[in-house]
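Render this sequence as a predicted structure.
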Amino acid sequence: MLTGPRTIRYKLIGWFGRAHSQALRISHGKFMHSLAGLDVLLLTTKGRRTGRCRYTTLLYIGDDEFYYCVASFGGNDRHPEWYLNLVSEPMAWLLINKRYIKVTASVLAGKQKDDIWIKFIRYYPGFSKYQDKTHRTIPVVQFACTDVVPE
């Protein structure tokens, strides 16, 4: 079993992410909707193996039409589970500012990805360090709104 600093770091990321997601879910977005002053959303995906709902808290940028997230996993060489779930089933839900939004996810490429990536680096410079740490290209996911549940 690996117990190096990187492995422990990713386990802590997972533990904190689960606790943060649970707090957002229980409060319906009233509490913990930011992290170190940065806006976060709660993503609900369908597990690709279990079919169960999976919850993840993510930094995001966007507007009322499109939202964007980065599948960084802190610079891990593996894609995060939420990203793999979206590749398998792109329909998902976001909880943003106490609103539930049904979305369809797609992975950006080319100039569109590059433009959004630059915005993310300005929003949170740590993403650049994550890209430097990993051998994979970190994906940028676009969420297109299909329905909004009123408060």
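Summary. The longest strand covers residues 140-149. The chain has four helices and eight strands.
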